[in-house]
Write a structure and sequence with these properties.
By secondary structure, the protein is mainly α.
Amino acid sequence: MADASDVLIELWKEQREQARQTETQRSTLTNIVILVVAAGLGFVAQKGLGPSMLAVTIPITLLGGYGAVACMKFHERFTLHDLQALHLRVKLGSLHPDLEIESGWADTYRAQQARYPRLYRLRLYGLWVALHVGITVGGFVLTLVAAL
């Protein structure tokens, strides 16, 4: 029978895998959005921006908005799995205090923060949401120009 450490390690691995899966899904969605938007912009560039292009610019706007909301949801799910993995790691560290797991992680975070003070504060999910919001704004501007 497995001891408590083995059980905690397997549960921790599962949570980390779920977090990675969430990031993979976000990446895939973003790639699809970028491809569709690029195709739409190419079509608009070929045909010219006019009222008939509203059929392209409006979906670009909606797709950007959907991507932003989806990225926020993916971040929420990632955070859930990350916090669950953290809880399991702390539990594992309490079973094996001689490994100094938490102090090692804390030292690594402090070193990373000292090395990259500005970038450390910048949240990666915020960049992904900003990309999708940019697509939304761009699509909206194109929609306004096409409608006028």
